[in-house]
């Protein structure tokens, strides 16, 4: 079962990566990027991420990756995760125990 998770993760990464590298960011005559080209690139990126399967948010795909974790209206819990954040069985059990104790008081 765990091998399937790694295969699905790698396949999803490849699909998203290949979709993103096909996007074109057009330049103006002077070699600069213009506002419309960047907006078109962002729309393409949204389409690719939205079409990516995400069982936790049906129909929305991975669009949550583009939201900010400090957004006051709709913060992204996914983008708030840092590379230094680690979850172990001990930390999960400790957090659950603390929440149960707080709920029973």
- Low-confidence runs (pLDDT<50, min 5 residues)? none
Helix count, DSSP H or I runs of 4 or more residues: 3
Overall number of strands: 0
Structure class: mainly alpha
The arrangement of helices and strands along the chain is: HHH
Inertia-based shape: elongated
Largest sheet: none
What report would you give on this structure?
By secondary structure, the protein is mostly helical. 50% of the residues lie in helices and 0% in strands. It contains 3 helices and no strands. The chain has helices at 2-21, 35-51, 89-104. It is elongated, with a radius of gyration of 19 Å. The chain starts with a helix and ends with a helix. The relative contact order is 0.07. The model has no long low-confidence stretch (mean pLDDT 81).
Task: Compile the SSE list and pairings.
Blueprint: H1 2-21, H2 35-51, H3 89-104
Characteristic key phrases:
mainly alpha; 3 helices; 105 residues; single chain
Give a short synopsis of this structure.
With 105 residues, this protein is mainly alpha-helical.
